[in-house]
């Protein structure tokens, strides 16, 4: 059913809830979990970074967030791998899902209300561009 699951995580409580949901699903299927986070690409000129929705401020922070969630998944008995990618979070999640031939993407519902719902959010972008099924976990 859902053998390969990708989950987006940005260090927020909403993302932690999405990771917990993904872990619970993977426990049921005996599959593999891929935790993805994005970080802002650091400009070589030192002059600020491009707009990167949903991305963390540095590669080190992104790798730390991924490592924490992967550790939690493994402690729950889940085979897990982490991916820290530069750029937009929705693109990173969808790219990893494509790379690993994911059956499901799990994201939290952060940004699905108010103006962000109208202007765009990571869950909304993932839902429109995903290469597989998407579960938007209710986290608020």
Write a concise keyword list for the protein shown above.
globular, single chain, Rossmann fold, alpha/beta, 5 helices, 140 residues, five-stranded parallel sheet
| N-to-C SSE string, H for helix and E for strand | EHEHEHEHHE
CATH homologous superfamily annotation: HUPs
**Runs with pLDDT <50, length 5+?**
43-50, 112-119
Q: Indicate the CATH class.
A: Alpha Beta
What does this structure look like?
- This protein is an alpha/beta fold.
- The protein has a single domain, classed as Rossmann fold (3-Layer(aba) Sandwich), CATH 3.40.50.
- The chain has five helices and five strands, in the order E-H-E-H-E-H-E-H-H-E.
- A five-stranded parallel beta sheet has the order 3-2-1-4-5, with helices on both faces.
- Strand 1, helix 1 and strand 2 form a beta-alpha-beta unit.
- Helix 3 (89-99) runs parallel beside helix 5 (122-129).
Secondary-structure blueprint:
Elements: E1 4-8, H1 13-29, E2 32-39, H2 59-75, E3 79-86, H3 89-99, E4 104-108, H4 114-119, H5 122-129, E5 133-137
Parallel strand pairs: 1-2, 1-4, 2-3, 4-5
Helix pairs in contact: 3-5
Q: Briefly, what is this?
A:
This protein has 140 residues and is α/β, with parallel strands linked by helices. It is built from five helices and five strands, in the order βαβαβαβααβ. α3 (89-99) packs parallel to α5 (122-129).
């Amino acid at each position: 059913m859902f053998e390969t699951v990708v989950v987006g995580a940005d260090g927020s409580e909403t993302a932690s809830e999405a990771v917990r949901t993904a872990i619970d699903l993977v426990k049921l299927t005996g599959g593999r979990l891929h935790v993805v986070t994005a970080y802002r690409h650091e400009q070589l000129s030192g002059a600020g970074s491009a707009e990167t929705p949903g991305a963390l401020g540095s590669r080190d922070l992104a790798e730390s967030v991924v490592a924490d969630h992967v550790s939690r998944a493994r402690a729950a008995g889940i085979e897990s791998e982490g991916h820290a990618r530069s750029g937009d979070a929705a693109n990173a999640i969808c790219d990893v899902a494509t790379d690993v031939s994911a059956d499901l993407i799990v994201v939290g519902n952060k940004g699905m209300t108010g103006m962000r719902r109208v202007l765009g959010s990571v869950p909304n972008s993932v839902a429109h561009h995903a290469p597989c099924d998407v579960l938007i976990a209710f986290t608020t």
